[in-house]
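Dig into this one:

. . .
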Amino acid sequence: MDFMTALDVGGSALTAQRTYMNVISMNLANARTTRTADGQGPYQRKSVALESTRVTPFGKAMDQALGQELQGVRVTGVVNDNRPPKQVYEPGHPDADQNGYVSYPDINVVEEMTNMIQATRSYEAETSTINTIKAMYNKALEMGR
């Protein structure tokens, strides 16, 4: 693996983790949203769909040269979680139905915080990897002088 390929793989992971953090933040911000801006029901929890992908554009040339496939990760989309909303009895709430129940998004704050910690740790690990790669190549350049 060469310098640029390693950075491409690390960069793809950073982009994916940043998107994941944004979605988690959106879920936490809307944990008590009973009505979305378009007037529909409660906010629907979202998740990130990821898939592995070939590292481009430099990765293709290196794959052929090395005879191995290197893969990064990319976000394929933000998808709705199909969990049903939680029904809470609050007869005085403006969004309560005729039986006095309000539909809240089924967002567990502990689960979201755990996901946020995981995404943060992954982001930090990738940042550390990229910094290590840069330090290794700086040392190699110093040796070449």
